[in-house]
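Protein Record: Sequence and Backbone Structure Tokens
======================================================
Scope: a single protein chain, as residues and as a discrete description of its fold.
Tokens: labelled as protein backbone structure tokens, with as many entries as the chain has residues.
Position: the record begins directly beneath this header, with no further notes in between.
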Amino acid sequence: MVPVSGTFELHDFPMSFRLRQDAIVRHLRRSGTSTIAELAEAVGASRRTVLRDLGALRDMGFVIHSEPGRGGGLQLDPQSVQTTARLSVAEVFALLVSVASMRAAGNLPFSALADAGLAKIERALPSDKLRDLRRFLDCLHIGPLSPLVDISDLGTIDPALLPAFETAFLERRPLRFVYRDAKSATTNRVVEPQALLILPPLWYLVAWDPSREDFRYFRMDRISAPETTDGPTFARRHVRFEDHIRRARDLSR
């Protein structure tokens, strides 16, 4: 991922089942032949879980041979590769956001290749994930940052933010977090997320604050401990942006 402030690394997302399946593939590649018991011990899972993971890996395109008999085992075809995408909505969104923000900043020298790759990933998504991705993208707006804005205190973004935002946006659930303002004062906030605004290199959460009955802009590098609440869902509100701010989906790809 591009090393700009506000970039999310894909490995920051907690996906233990994917890590376990990746470990099974690595073990099979390195060992040549392995039994179910050996795989279970290697990845710290039950026999039933390993069998389920093997089925999932075969569905993804990996060719795994089974040798019958007492001394038989499992072998991964050395030419075998994954043929289906396992990216989550949040991960694909992170990729799209990175490309869109680089384009907005005028720093995307291989835009055609990037767009082609992203289009292939989108086509590989199941229909339900593609629908969620498009809803997620409707919340994203991008524009240029004024040269008068001070970015000397630019920090890093909590990797837990994007998964929390995904749930908040798609399920319309309030978001709770700790916010640190420009003077380093911290407050506990509960808001209704309405949009994400990227003004490279700054990222903002645009939310309706019920306690203030108005929209608020929160710099994402100043947000910590984000979590969605179990309270009632909220209504979508229209956010008015200035003319130079555009929806990500409206940007030419």
User: Anything to note?
Assistant: Helices lie at 16-31, 36-43, 47-60, 89-104, 111-124, 127-137, 161-171. The first strand starts at residue 64 and ends at 66. The two ends are 19 Å apart (CA to CA).
